């Protein structure tokens, strides 16, 4: 299949993208969080196509994107008042609400769950496409399953060129990290995934309970322990970045290992093994770091490095979402002897 490259700044391209969705085809588009891979949310066959293109297991449900509260009501039922309050406060924007689903939403979209995840995006590209299409659009992030999320049209093409019908280029995403996913109950906000909207912001509306992933549980598969992962082995550095790199240097003395280091903010790195340093935000601004995160990982992944080591990020605000993505991209691995042994063994 040939993937059409369309531009959100050309009205005829937006119409063409919407026409493809109406025919049950797949169109990737920019949102303010990450690029989504869209299909008609009420067409089970179209939605199934998303799973095929991404090689995503069908147990992992999709997020439904709406452009109005009328559309929200059409895909849900018995919405708790706390959910309505959250929608009023954070929509359009980076918050996804998990609420009971209306019967018309196909089971394939929700992976058989009785709930549906819904979000009203704020990016002009997503808005233009939703308006032209006129209905709800199911869209997970537009990457191959398990790989780093896309924040530029080219990232989408790197993963899915030839596997989807079109990409509607809307430029960069802005926030650069996925939406926060919450499940509002009668009394509290259960947080299923850290993201664009912070715990601090949510706490102003109601009590927030962070639901940690339990092994074997598939409540929100974005909660799987490995996700957003580059092909290059990745591990997390401790706060003492310099000390750890020195330790690595002594251990790997005389060995040809090429490291990439992902830094939250600018700092001097002197290590003969470090071939690439990527700074997420020169001055250490969490929002800027979030916006650069996935593109940085994708770029480091293209450099034929033996490993990527990521420095820690302050654990507050959107930093919690960045830390969560780093943890999963690294499959929870820590920089240290066991990780280095594996690298050296591979080289030997
Ligand atoms: O920012 C975003 O949320 C982006 C843009 C495109 O909107 N989308 C996104 O989708 O990140 P995806 O598929 O990569 O992540 C969606 C997550 C998955 O982890 C899925 O398991 C969870 O949402 N999810 C979907 N429906 C759910 C439900 N009914 N209950 C719990 N989790 C659900
Ligand atoms: Mg994803």
What distinguishing features does this structure have?
4-stranded parallel β-sheet, 15 strands, binds threonylcarbamoyladenylate, globular, 348 residues, 12 helices, 11-stranded mixed β-sheet, binds magnesium ion, alpha/beta
Counting DSSP E segments of at least 2 residues, the number of strands comes to: 15
Which geometry do the CA atoms define?
globular
Cofactors and ligands: threonylcarbamoyladenylate, magnesium ion
From the N-terminal CA to the C-terminal CA, the straight-line distance is 41 Å
Beta-strand percentage range: 15-25%
Characterize the largest beta sheet: strand count, sense, and whether it forms a barrel.
11 strands, mixed
Secondary structure class reads alpha/beta
Task: Output the strand order for the largest sheet.
Answer: 1-8-2-3-7-4-6-5-9-10-11
What's the SSE pattern?
A: EHEEHEHHEHEHEHEEEHEEHEEHEHH
Question: What gyration radius follows from the Cα positions, in whole Å?
Answer: 20 Å
Task: Please bin the fraction of helical residues.
Answer: 25-40%
Low confidence ranges: none
Written description of the protein model:
With 348 residues, the chain is an alpha/beta fold. Helices cover 33% and strands 19% of the residues. It has helices at residues 11-22, 44-54, 69-75, 81-90, 107-110, 124-133, 153-160, 199-203, 241-251, 286-301, 319-329, 337-347, and strands at residues 4-7, 27-29, 36-40, 63-65, 95-100, 115-119, 137-138, 166-169, 180-184, 188-193, 207-210, 234-236, 259-263, 274-279, 307-310. The protein has an eleven-stranded mixed beta sheet with strand order 1-8-2-3-7-4-6-5-9-10-11, with helices on both faces. It has a four-stranded parallel beta sheet with strand order 12-15-13-14, with helices on one face. β9 and β10 form a beta hairpin. The mean pLDDT is 95. The protein binds threonylcarbamoyladenylate (TXA) and magnesium ion. The site of threonylcarbamoyladenylate has 27 residues, from β5 and β6. Residues 31, 33-34, 36, 60-63, 96, 98, 110, 113, 115-117, 119, 139-141, 178-179, 181, 192, 219-222 line the site of threonylcarbamoyladenylate.
